[in-house]
Amino acid sequence: MEGHALPPEEHFITVEPYYEPIGDEIALFEAAYRNRLPVLLKGPTGCGKTRFMEHMAWRLKRPLITVSCHDDLTASDLVGRYLITADQTVWVDGPLARAVRAGGICYLDEVVEARKDTTVVIHPLADDRRMLPMEKLGLELEASPEFMLAISYNPGYQSVLKELKQSTRQRFVALEFDYPAPALEQRIVVKETGLDEALAAQLVKLAAMTRNLKGSGLDEGASTRLLVHAGKLMMDGVAPAAACRGAIARALTDEPEMLAAVDELIATLF
Amino acid sequence: MNSSPPSSDVSLSAAELEEQLDELLEAAYTPGRRTDAIAAKLAAHPAEVQRFVLHWCAVTAQTHSQVAYLFARHVLEALETMDRPDVQKWLLHAMDLYDRQGLYPAIAVLKAPREFAGDAVDHAQGVYLEEISGVLELFLRGLSGRAMKLEPVDPPHTDTTTLFLPSRVGRFPDEESNFRLYKALAVHQWAQTHFGTFFPELAAQLHAYPDPDKARKLYLLLETVRLDAVLARHYPGLAREIQSLRDAPLPAEFTAAAAELEAPGAGRKHSLEWTANLLTQPLPPPWPYLGDLFPERAEAERQQRLRRDKAALQAALAHMQRGAKKPATFSLRREKSADEVTADFVLLADGRPVVLHDEVKGLLHSIDLDLGEIPPDYLTPAGDGGYAPAKSPKEKDMAAPEGGYTYNEWDYQRRHYRKNWCTLRELPSGLGNAGYAAEILDKYGGQVGQIRRVFEALRGEEKRLRAQKNGDDVDLDAAIAARTDLRCGREMTDRVFTRQERLERNIAVLFMVDMSGSTRGWINDAERESLLLMCEGLEKLGDRYAIYGFSGMTRIRCEIFPIKTFAEPYGPDVQRRIAGIEPKDYTRMGAAIRHLTAKLKEVDARTRLLVTLSDGKPDDFNDPYRGVYGIEDTRMALIEAKRAGIHPFCITIDQEARNYLPHMYGAVNYTIVSEVRHLPAKVADIYRKLTT
Question: Which residues of B touch A82 (CB under 8 A)?
């Protein structure tokens, strides 16, 4: 398939992204959207936060602009900056400004990773002002009524540096995500990979084993996403144990002893 | 080593050997310790062998001269049956035993080299429990969802809380198979507990048979057959491995029993029935992974555990309803779970479901396994609904036995760690005079101000970065250059902005302060003053910092005194604790460094510093720790710290330090302060240089 380029604000999701609701998160999100409230998604990595956003963007028929935050991400990366072209400087909107203008959903993934100055632009957008200050243009951009701000963070990182400040978190409607219950997780793995029920059940069992190890050497257990990766490798003909070693064990840890233990756990199932 | 082995290749005569051995083994002061026979035999061996024996005698004598003597007496016999690396293993095994279990087990191993050789030569690839217990514990935790203790005891069995495994498995010629056998033994013990092999009347029922010993073994065999089938349904991979360990098929008389026990739904009652039926048959030879079964021990442990669990559950329930106006009535609803035996519980308080903590879930699960139900009296909150945390066995100190942390120590002569050799405790530090801090800050008035200013300047260091892709102003030079490039038809850069940037400091520092007896007087004063000045500066700077004192006497009494933790703010309490720093005992540095490294590792910072304030080299009471041993252990502890991404640095007053510090800390990671009274001002200065 050939890739094609589209400006992010025109990127509407047309095919329903597969999503299994865990509780009433869809209704809550829709209500927040109707009332123009920003949303905070909490939960461990790979449990379906990003997929949920895609699904909601499809439901609400709005373009989804996702920004993965990292520790060098500054406010101007979000708002925009002057770029120099052939003979002049040109203002280029950042992803957040584009979403604000076009009435899209802007999703700031792992927002705690971003630099602290980004909160300056998020705060006025996240309360009832719904304004994006564009300092370099001397403008304040009023958000279109369809615009929505969503951020995510993983409370599992036990780090003092990666905490969300009260002044930020208290602007959001919070939705909590966790790994789905075994039966549901099995259904997700089957649906996402086409694997047969029995193998999917074994994968889910393996996930539970690794989640048992959280806190005794692993920072996180295997996420649903890792199970899907392993499942896809299996569907492609990779032997189940080898698929799990590659997609799960080595993705989880570098520590030799832990690696050996996870490999042994894999060996019990396949 | 006080006696160096001969360096030439000429073998020594019996007399020369005897002289050396006498000195090494302190034969002169120990009645009944004769070296002449050993020397005579050893004289017949080539120089290489003599060197080997003398070297290890010297090493072992550092630990215990009796162990060394026995080694000398039996080493030639050992060399007849083993090659030298295996002899070395044999000796290290004995010394490990001496460290952990005392003299007699070590002597037993040394006196029977042939026995060890039996294992070592046939299967040099034997696996020791301590080598694999880390992986095995994690593996079992993953499998079962709870922590299980492993202990080296033969024959392998379980009391349903601890898994007892042999200290070494050398049955197979390759390491992998030996590990697999360990795994099978451990998994079966876990499965016995988890899938209901034990029940209160088991011991009595087995004793009712005319041959209770045989009945017990038969029951274990039948249960093993049943559990293998259960495991095969849940863990096919594991079952395959265990299957491969069955070295003999079951006799024909057992076929019917096996068929019934392997069917889904079979339980221990089927095993008991077949025990009665098959008792007249001879027992087949045991499979390697068949341990033993001690129902009495399991029952005793079960009673104890039930008491513990009941108290803990009641305390937890009391804790849950703390603050409620009127005590709630708790009840349980049992829900089916995915696997065959365990149940999931929903706890109801006055009929409404309550969110369950993992700990409470674990307790319910454990009680359910032991009793098959949760009796209503277990659901009565402790006391009158009052929470008594002291009675709860869930206190933090349950994690480490006797309230201490244990650390390995590096023995440079063995080139091995002595396992769990040091016991370290954190003790509350003494409080000093409340007026002390004010007095010192007054004394150093001008300097305090200067340190604050210097550190303040460090904090807000701002920089204008040139030639940036984006920024708040145009970098004229870069813009002109870019225009020029464009005019000349060259590619122009887009880096034409300047940006004001504040360089963020992301530093955590831990000060480790020597509180050994030798710091008494001036040095102690200087340490306390330095710390106070540092704190004043660091408060301005904003770096995260902690202060811990260390001291102790012997390996079982290493002590750490928290003076300021990372989380605690600087204030009067910290000042009083600094004032209260006083000389105590000795300097066993290795354990202190390992402990504080662990603390520092928990802090998320780009740069982590471990700064030692000390007055001399590592030292301990009447112990080989004084001297090379201590320096080498400290060095190893520092290497471990560096591996963990920590920068160790040492500030010392010891003028001799140049002889050993470069070796311990590395050439650039230390400073010697020549004058004690300069220390307070110096420390701040050193820190500033260190972190800019």
Answer: 470
